[in-house]
Amino acid sequence: MHFLHVFIAIWFLLVASVASQEAPIWVQGALEDATATDDAFNTGGTIVVNGFTVNVPKNLLVQFPAAWVPWKEFVANKADFTGYETLVIGNSINGEPRVAQVQLYEFFEGLSSGFVESVDFADGSLKIQNGPTVRISDPNAVFSKGYTGAPLMTADDQSPSITSFSGFPMCIPRNGTDPLCPLSNRPFVGPGTFTAPDPVVMAPFQAGDFITFSGFRRGAEVIAFSIVAQNVQINTLGDVVYVRMELGLLGIDNPNPNAEIAESRFIGFVSNNRATVSLYAMDVDPCTGATTDRIIACMGLRGGRNAQNKFEYRNNILFRYTREYRVTAEIDGVAKTRVIKNGITAGTYVQPVNVWVPGEQDVPGVPPVSYDFSQMEFLTKGVGADDDGNVWGPLEPFPQTGVLIEPPICAAARGLEFEKRGQIGRWYGRARADAIS
Hints:
- Helix content is 6%, strand content 40%.
- By secondary structure, the chain is mainly beta.
- The strands form 10 sheets. It has a 5-stranded antiparallel β-sheet.
- Strand 2 and strand 3 form a beta hairpin.
- The longest helix has 18 residues.
- Keywords: Signal.
Protein backbone atom coordinates (compact mmCIF):
# COMPACT_ATOMS: atom_id res chain seq x y z
CA MET A 1 0.00 0.00 0.00
CA HIS A 2 2.85 2.36 0.81
CA PHE A 3 4.33 1.90 -2.66
CA LEU A 4 0.91 2.51 -4.19
CA HIS A 5 0.67 5.86 -2.40
CA VAL A 6 4.16 6.80 -3.59
CA PHE A 7 3.27 5.83 -7.16
CA ILE A 8 0.09 7.92 -7.06
CA ALA A 9 1.97 10.90 -5.64
CA ILE A 10 4.60 10.70 -8.37
CA TRP A 11 1.89 10.33 -11.01
CA PHE A 12 0.14 13.48 -9.79
CA LEU A 13 3.45 15.37 -9.83
CA LEU A 14 4.07 14.30 -13.40
CA VAL A 15 0.56 15.31 -14.46
CA ALA A 16 0.95 18.68 -12.73
CA SER A 17 4.31 19.16 -14.44
CA VAL A 18 2.81 18.48 -17.85
CA ALA A 19 -0.21 20.68 -17.12
CA SER A 20 1.99 23.64 -16.17
CA GLN A 21 4.47 23.12 -18.97
CA GLU A 22 6.01 26.27 -20.44
CA ALA A 23 7.76 26.01 -23.79
CA PRO A 24 9.24 28.48 -26.27
CA ILE A 25 7.49 29.63 -29.44
CA TRP A 26 9.55 30.61 -32.47
CA VAL A 27 7.58 30.66 -35.71
CA GLN A 28 9.04 32.26 -38.82
CA GLY A 29 7.24 32.11 -42.13
CA ALA A 30 4.47 33.56 -44.25
CA LEU A 31 1.72 35.65 -42.65
CA GLU A 32 -1.62 33.95 -43.25
CA ASP A 33 -4.08 35.88 -41.12
CA ALA A 34 -4.47 38.27 -38.19
CA THR A 35 -7.52 39.20 -36.12
CA ALA A 36 -8.31 41.82 -33.48
CA THR A 37 -10.30 41.02 -30.35
CA ASP A 38 -12.16 44.32 -30.21
CA ASP A 39 -11.93 47.99 -31.21
CA ALA A 40 -9.79 49.19 -28.26
CA PHE A 41 -6.64 51.11 -29.21
CA ASN A 42 -4.44 48.47 -27.54
CA THR A 43 -6.44 45.39 -28.45
CA GLY A 44 -4.89 41.98 -28.93
CA GLY A 45 -6.13 39.13 -31.07
CA THR A 46 -4.61 36.23 -32.97
CA ILE A 47 -1.98 35.76 -35.66
CA VAL A 48 -1.61 32.83 -38.05
CA VAL A 49 1.87 32.11 -39.43
CA ASN A 50 2.98 28.88 -41.11
CA GLY A 51 -0.17 27.14 -39.93
CA PHE A 52 0.35 28.14 -36.27
CA THR A 53 -2.34 30.20 -34.54
CA VAL A 54 -0.93 32.22 -31.65
CA ASN A 55 -2.72 34.54 -29.22
CA VAL A 56 -1.68 38.19 -29.31
CA PRO A 57 -1.87 40.04 -25.95
CA LYS A 58 -3.06 43.57 -25.38
CA ASN A 59 -0.53 46.40 -25.91
CA LEU A 60 1.52 44.56 -28.52
CA LEU A 61 3.23 46.69 -31.19
CA VAL A 62 4.40 45.05 -34.42
CA GLN A 63 8.00 45.82 -35.39
CA PHE A 64 8.41 47.15 -38.93
CA PRO A 65 11.74 48.38 -40.39
CA ALA A 66 11.25 51.95 -39.13
CA ALA A 67 8.03 51.85 -37.10
CA TRP A 68 6.18 50.20 -34.22
CA VAL A 69 2.60 49.65 -35.34
CA PRO A 70 -0.41 48.96 -33.07
CA TRP A 71 -1.90 45.51 -33.49
CA LYS A 72 -5.29 46.99 -34.36
CA GLU A 73 -3.80 49.01 -37.20
CA PHE A 74 -1.76 46.07 -38.42
CA VAL A 75 -4.90 43.94 -38.63
CA ALA A 76 -6.67 46.69 -40.57
CA ASN A 77 -3.86 46.58 -43.15
CA LYS A 78 -3.20 42.83 -43.12
CA ALA A 79 -4.19 42.38 -46.76
CA ASP A 80 -1.09 44.36 -47.74
CA PHE A 81 1.17 41.92 -45.88
CA THR A 82 -0.36 38.49 -46.49
CA GLY A 83 2.51 36.19 -47.45
CA TYR A 84 5.17 38.46 -45.93
CA GLU A 85 7.82 36.80 -43.81
CA THR A 86 6.83 37.19 -40.17
CA LEU A 87 8.66 36.25 -36.99
CA VAL A 88 6.59 35.39 -33.91
CA ILE A 89 8.40 34.93 -30.57
CA GLY A 90 6.66 33.94 -27.34
CA ASN A 91 5.89 31.06 -25.01
CA SER A 92 3.27 28.35 -24.74
CA ILE A 93 1.84 28.36 -21.21
CA ASN A 94 -0.28 25.41 -20.16
CA GLY A 95 -0.93 24.78 -23.82
CA GLU A 96 -1.93 28.39 -24.56
CA PRO A 97 0.37 30.04 -27.14
CA ARG A 98 1.13 33.68 -26.26
CA VAL A 99 3.01 36.19 -28.39
CA ALA A 100 5.69 38.49 -26.99
CA GLN A 101 7.15 39.95 -30.19
CA VAL A 102 6.15 40.16 -33.85
CA GLN A 103 8.55 41.33 -36.56
CA LEU A 104 7.68 41.70 -40.24
CA TYR A 105 9.48 42.13 -43.57
CA GLU A 106 8.63 40.88 -47.05
CA PHE A 107 11.78 38.77 -46.72
CA PHE A 108 14.11 38.98 -43.72
CA GLU A 109 17.20 38.53 -45.90
CA GLY A 110 15.63 40.22 -48.91
CA LEU A 111 18.72 42.09 -50.07
CA SER A 112 19.40 42.89 -53.73
CA SER A 113 22.26 44.74 -55.38
CA GLY A 114 23.07 46.18 -58.77
CA PHE A 115 24.34 49.16 -60.72
CA VAL A 116 22.15 52.22 -61.15
CA GLU A 117 21.53 52.49 -64.88
CA SER A 118 19.67 55.79 -64.78
CA VAL A 119 18.11 58.27 -62.36
CA ASP A 120 14.66 59.67 -63.18
CA PHE A 121 14.27 63.03 -61.41
CA ALA A 122 10.64 63.58 -62.43
CA ASP A 123 9.58 60.06 -61.48
CA GLY A 124 11.76 59.91 -58.35
CA SER A 125 13.15 56.48 -59.15
CA LEU A 126 16.33 54.52 -59.94
CA LYS A 127 16.52 52.01 -62.80
CA ILE A 128 18.78 49.08 -61.96
CA GLN A 129 20.85 47.52 -64.72
CA ASN A 130 19.19 44.22 -65.75
CA GLY A 131 16.87 44.69 -62.79
CA PRO A 132 13.81 46.49 -61.47
CA THR A 133 12.98 50.12 -60.96
CA VAL A 134 13.60 51.13 -57.34
CA ARG A 135 11.54 53.77 -55.59
CA ILE A 136 12.13 55.01 -52.03
CA SER A 137 9.25 54.58 -49.57
CA ASP A 138 9.46 58.21 -48.55
CA PRO A 139 6.13 59.63 -47.27
CA ASN A 140 7.73 62.82 -45.98
CA ALA A 141 9.61 63.43 -49.27
CA VAL A 142 12.97 63.66 -47.49
CA PHE A 143 15.04 61.56 -49.91
CA SER A 144 13.07 62.14 -53.12
CA LYS A 145 9.89 63.64 -54.51
CA GLY A 146 8.13 61.28 -52.13
CA TYR A 147 6.10 58.09 -52.11
CA THR A 148 3.12 57.63 -49.81
CA GLY A 149 1.82 54.25 -50.96
CA ALA A 150 3.24 52.22 -48.06
CA PRO A 151 2.88 54.22 -44.82
CA LEU A 152 3.83 51.32 -42.53
CA MET A 153 6.86 50.09 -44.48
CA THR A 154 8.94 53.26 -44.88
CA ALA A 155 12.52 54.39 -45.05
CA ASP A 156 13.86 55.93 -41.86
CA ASP A 157 14.10 59.66 -42.47
CA GLN A 158 15.51 60.56 -39.04
CA SER A 159 18.29 58.03 -38.73
CA PRO A 160 18.73 57.93 -42.50
CA SER A 161 18.52 54.54 -44.14
CA ILE A 162 19.33 55.90 -47.62
CA THR A 163 23.08 56.53 -47.59
CA SER A 164 26.55 56.12 -49.02
CA PHE A 165 28.74 53.44 -47.46
CA SER A 166 29.94 55.90 -44.81
CA GLY A 167 26.43 56.83 -43.70
CA PHE A 168 26.38 60.15 -45.56
CA PRO A 169 22.72 60.60 -46.56
CA MET A 170 21.85 60.32 -50.25
CA CYS A 171 18.86 61.27 -52.35
CA ILE A 172 17.14 61.34 -55.74
CA PRO A 173 17.02 64.97 -56.96
CA ARG A 174 13.56 66.38 -57.57
CA ASN A 175 14.98 68.40 -60.47
CA GLY A 176 18.34 69.50 -61.86
CA THR A 177 18.65 72.39 -59.39
CA ASP A 178 17.28 70.79 -56.23
CA PRO A 179 18.85 72.69 -53.27
CA LEU A 180 18.19 69.76 -50.91
CA CYS A 181 19.87 67.27 -53.27
CA PRO A 182 22.39 69.36 -55.25
CA LEU A 183 24.24 67.74 -58.14
CA SER A 184 27.29 69.70 -56.99
CA ASN A 185 27.62 67.38 -53.98
CA ARG A 186 28.90 64.72 -56.40
CA PRO A 187 32.07 66.51 -57.59
CA PHE A 188 32.82 63.95 -60.31
CA VAL A 189 30.91 61.41 -62.35
CA GLY A 190 31.23 57.84 -61.17
CA PRO A 191 31.97 56.03 -57.93
CA GLY A 192 34.84 56.68 -55.58
CA THR A 193 35.94 58.15 -52.28
CA PHE A 194 35.71 61.90 -51.72
CA THR A 195 35.03 64.56 -49.12
CA ALA A 196 31.56 66.09 -49.29
CA PRO A 197 31.74 69.59 -50.82
CA ASP A 198 28.78 70.63 -48.65
CA PRO A 199 28.70 68.35 -45.59
CA VAL A 200 25.29 69.52 -44.32
CA VAL A 201 23.16 68.58 -47.31
CA MET A 202 22.56 65.22 -49.01
CA ALA A 203 24.39 63.91 -52.05
CA PRO A 204 22.52 62.59 -55.12
CA PHE A 205 22.58 59.10 -56.58
CA GLN A 206 23.88 58.87 -60.12
CA ALA A 207 24.31 56.29 -62.86
CA GLY A 208 27.14 53.89 -62.04
CA ASP A 209 26.46 53.72 -58.31
CA PHE A 210 26.44 50.12 -57.07
CA ILE A 211 23.67 49.92 -54.49
CA THR A 212 22.44 47.30 -52.05
CA PHE A 213 18.77 47.73 -51.24
CA SER A 214 15.98 46.20 -49.18
CA GLY A 215 12.28 46.68 -49.70
CA PHE A 216 9.22 44.95 -51.10
CA ARG A 217 7.81 44.30 -54.53
CA ARG A 218 4.89 46.33 -55.80
CA GLY A 219 4.11 45.46 -59.38
CA ALA A 220 7.28 45.77 -61.46
CA GLU A 221 8.95 48.01 -58.89
CA VAL A 222 10.80 47.56 -55.62
CA ILE A 223 9.73 50.03 -52.94
CA ALA A 224 12.89 50.42 -50.87
CA PHE A 225 13.22 51.29 -47.20
CA SER A 226 17.02 50.88 -47.17
CA ILE A 227 19.64 51.73 -49.81
CA VAL A 228 23.43 51.78 -49.39
CA ALA A 229 25.71 52.93 -52.22
CA GLN A 230 28.54 50.46 -51.72
CA ASN A 231 31.00 52.08 -54.13
CA VAL A 232 30.43 55.64 -52.90
CA GLN A 233 32.43 56.58 -49.80
CA ILE A 234 31.58 60.17 -48.85
CA ASN A 235 33.74 61.43 -45.99
CA THR A 236 33.39 64.50 -43.81
CA LEU A 237 35.92 66.71 -42.05
CA GLY A 238 35.93 68.96 -39.01
CA ASP A 239 33.06 68.47 -36.59
CA VAL A 240 30.57 66.97 -39.04
CA VAL A 241 30.00 63.22 -38.79
CA TYR A 242 27.30 60.81 -39.93
CA VAL A 243 26.60 57.34 -38.56
CA ARG A 244 25.30 54.26 -40.35
CA MET A 245 24.32 51.10 -38.49
CA GLU A 246 24.53 47.72 -40.17
CA LEU A 247 23.51 45.40 -37.34
CA GLY A 248 21.83 45.48 -33.97
CA LEU A 249 21.86 41.91 -32.65
CA LEU A 250 20.77 41.30 -29.08
CA GLY A 251 21.49 38.02 -27.31
CA ILE A 252 18.92 37.56 -24.52
CA ASP A 253 20.07 36.00 -21.25
CA ASN A 254 18.01 33.29 -19.58
CA PRO A 255 18.03 32.33 -15.87
CA ASN A 256 17.63 28.66 -16.77
CA PRO A 257 21.02 26.92 -16.28
CA ASN A 258 20.33 24.87 -19.40
CA ALA A 259 20.29 27.94 -21.65
CA GLU A 260 23.19 29.60 -23.41
CA ILE A 261 23.37 33.28 -24.29
CA ALA A 262 24.43 34.62 -27.67
CA GLU A 263 26.92 37.47 -27.83
CA SER A 264 25.32 40.85 -28.57
CA ARG A 265 26.73 42.76 -31.54
CA PHE A 266 26.34 46.30 -32.84
CA ILE A 267 28.18 47.12 -36.07
CA GLY A 268 28.33 50.48 -37.79
CA PHE A 269 30.31 53.06 -39.73
CA VAL A 270 31.06 56.79 -39.54
CA SER A 271 31.90 59.39 -42.17
CA ASN A 272 34.69 61.06 -40.18
CA ASN A 273 37.77 59.05 -39.18
CA ARG A 274 38.37 61.27 -36.15
CA ALA A 275 35.16 60.09 -34.54
CA THR A 276 34.61 57.72 -31.65
CA VAL A 277 31.14 56.52 -30.70
CA SER A 278 29.08 55.84 -27.59
CA LEU A 279 26.40 53.15 -27.49
CA TYR A 280 23.32 53.80 -25.34
CA ALA A 281 20.27 51.79 -24.40
CA MET A 282 17.13 53.90 -24.86
CA ASP A 283 15.01 53.43 -21.73
CA VAL A 284 11.35 54.38 -22.14
CA ASP A 285 9.25 56.05 -19.44
CA PRO A 286 6.19 53.78 -19.10
CA CYS A 287 3.91 56.76 -18.51
CA THR A 288 5.13 59.55 -20.80
CA GLY A 289 6.95 57.49 -23.41
CA ALA A 290 9.95 59.82 -23.20
CA THR A 291 13.32 58.14 -23.75
CA THR A 292 16.46 58.37 -21.62
CA ASP A 293 19.87 57.29 -22.88
CA ARG A 294 21.77 54.84 -20.65
CA ILE A 295 25.41 54.28 -21.52
CA ILE A 296 26.46 50.77 -22.57
CA ALA A 297 29.94 51.35 -23.99
CA CYS A 298 32.29 53.80 -25.66
CA MET A 299 34.47 52.65 -28.55
CA GLY A 300 36.80 53.88 -31.25
CA LEU A 301 37.13 52.71 -34.80
CA ARG A 302 38.25 49.13 -35.21
CA GLY A 303 42.04 48.97 -35.07
CA GLY A 304 42.17 52.67 -34.22
CA ARG A 305 41.49 53.57 -37.84
CA ASN A 306 40.43 51.52 -40.87
CA ALA A 307 39.46 52.05 -44.50
CA GLN A 308 35.76 51.57 -43.76
CA ASN A 309 35.63 53.78 -40.64
CA LYS A 310 34.00 50.77 -39.02
CA PHE A 311 33.23 50.30 -35.33
CA GLU A 312 31.98 47.19 -33.58
CA TYR A 313 30.68 46.24 -30.14
CA ARG A 314 30.71 42.58 -29.12
CA ASN A 315 29.82 41.56 -25.59
CA ASN A 316 27.15 39.97 -23.46
CA ILE A 317 24.31 42.26 -22.38
CA LEU A 318 22.63 40.56 -19.43
CA PHE A 319 19.78 42.78 -18.30
CA ARG A 320 17.49 45.77 -19.01
CA TYR A 321 17.10 45.14 -22.70
CA THR A 322 15.56 47.91 -24.79
CA ARG A 323 14.01 47.66 -28.21
CA GLU A 324 16.21 50.47 -29.57
CA TYR A 325 19.78 51.63 -29.01
CA ARG A 326 21.33 54.97 -29.84
CA VAL A 327 24.81 55.50 -31.23
CA THR A 328 26.24 59.01 -30.86
CA ALA A 329 29.45 60.14 -32.54
CA GLU A 330 32.01 62.16 -30.61
CA ILE A 331 35.13 64.06 -31.60
CA ASP A 332 37.67 64.75 -28.87
CA GLY A 333 35.10 63.49 -26.37
CA VAL A 334 32.37 65.93 -27.42
CA ALA A 335 29.13 64.72 -29.03
CA LYS A 336 28.75 66.09 -32.55
CA THR A 337 25.05 66.19 -33.33
CA ARG A 338 23.55 68.83 -35.58
CA VAL A 339 20.45 69.28 -37.73
CA ILE A 340 21.34 69.52 -41.42
CA LYS A 341 19.49 71.31 -44.20
CA ASN A 342 17.34 68.26 -44.93
CA GLY A 343 16.05 68.18 -41.33
CA ILE A 344 18.05 65.08 -40.37
CA THR A 345 20.10 65.06 -37.17
CA ALA A 346 23.68 64.12 -38.06
CA GLY A 347 26.02 62.54 -35.53
CA THR A 348 23.50 60.16 -33.99
CA TYR A 349 21.62 57.05 -35.09
CA VAL A 350 18.75 55.17 -33.46
CA GLN A 351 19.09 51.45 -34.17
CA PRO A 352 16.15 49.15 -33.50
CA VAL A 353 17.21 45.64 -32.58
CA ASN A 354 16.85 43.88 -35.92
CA VAL A 355 18.01 40.44 -34.74
CA TRP A 356 16.68 38.98 -31.47
CA VAL A 357 18.45 35.82 -30.23
CA PRO A 358 16.73 34.31 -27.16
CA GLY A 359 18.66 31.99 -24.88
CA GLU A 360 18.82 28.57 -26.51
CA GLN A 361 18.71 25.13 -24.96
CA ASP A 362 22.19 23.80 -24.24
CA VAL A 363 21.69 20.16 -23.23
CA PRO A 364 19.31 18.06 -25.39
CA GLY A 365 16.99 15.34 -24.19
CA VAL A 366 15.36 17.42 -21.45
CA PRO A 367 12.26 19.68 -21.37
CA PRO A 368 12.61 22.75 -23.62
CA VAL A 369 13.79 26.06 -22.16
CA SER A 370 11.12 28.74 -22.32
CA TYR A 371 12.09 32.23 -23.46
CA ASP A 372 12.74 34.91 -20.86
CA PHE A 373 11.16 38.34 -21.34
CA SER A 374 11.50 39.52 -17.74
CA GLN A 375 14.33 41.96 -18.53
CA MET A 376 12.45 43.68 -21.36
CA GLU A 377 10.80 46.64 -19.67
CA PHE A 378 9.08 47.68 -22.90
CA LEU A 379 7.08 44.44 -22.47
CA THR A 380 6.82 44.23 -18.66
CA LYS A 381 6.00 47.93 -18.09
CA GLY A 382 4.98 49.29 -21.48
CA VAL A 383 6.12 52.16 -23.68
CA GLY A 384 3.99 55.00 -22.38
CA ALA A 385 1.76 57.53 -24.07
CA ASP A 386 1.29 57.91 -27.80
CA ASP A 387 0.46 61.25 -29.41
CA ASP A 388 -3.25 60.68 -28.76
CA GLY A 389 -2.63 60.34 -25.02
CA ASN A 390 -3.25 56.59 -24.94
CA VAL A 391 -0.90 54.84 -22.52
CA TRP A 392 0.53 51.55 -23.77
CA GLY A 393 1.07 49.33 -20.75
CA PRO A 394 2.58 45.86 -20.28
CA LEU A 395 1.58 42.88 -22.39
CA GLU A 396 -1.65 41.38 -21.05
CA PRO A 397 -1.68 38.46 -20.49
CA PHE A 398 2.08 38.30 -20.16
CA PRO A 399 3.74 35.51 -22.19
CA GLN A 400 5.76 34.11 -19.27
CA THR A 401 4.98 32.82 -15.78
CA GLY A 402 6.70 33.98 -12.60
CA VAL A 403 7.12 37.59 -13.74
CA LEU A 404 5.58 40.24 -11.47
CA ILE A 405 3.63 42.61 -13.71
CA GLU A 406 2.62 45.92 -12.15
CA PRO A 407 1.06 48.32 -14.64
CA PRO A 408 2.38 51.85 -14.06
CA ILE A 409 0.14 54.36 -12.32
CA CYS A 410 0.31 57.44 -14.52
CA ALA A 411 -0.94 60.97 -14.24
CA ALA A 412 -2.54 62.51 -17.31
CA ALA A 413 -0.09 62.12 -20.18
CA ARG A 414 1.71 65.33 -21.04
CA GLY A 415 1.91 66.55 -24.61
CA LEU A 416 4.97 65.33 -26.47
CA GLU A 417 6.35 66.44 -29.80
CA PHE A 418 6.89 63.40 -31.97
CA GLU A 419 9.26 63.21 -34.90
CA LYS A 420 7.09 61.33 -37.36
CA ARG A 421 8.16 58.47 -39.56
CA GLY A 422 5.50 58.13 -42.18
CA GLN A 423 1.87 59.15 -42.04
CA ILE A 424 0.90 61.75 -39.47
CA GLY A 425 -0.90 60.35 -36.45
CA ARG A 426 0.78 56.96 -36.54
CA TRP A 427 2.42 55.45 -33.45
CA TYR A 428 6.20 55.48 -33.44
CA GLY A 429 8.16 54.47 -30.39
CA ARG A 430 11.39 56.30 -30.97
CA ALA A 431 13.19 59.54 -31.71
CA ARG A 432 10.86 61.96 -30.00
CA ALA A 433 12.08 65.53 -30.21
CA ASP A 434 12.46 65.72 -26.44
CA ALA A 435 14.93 62.81 -26.47
CA ILE A 436 17.39 64.32 -28.95
CA SER A 437 18.96 66.58 -26.35
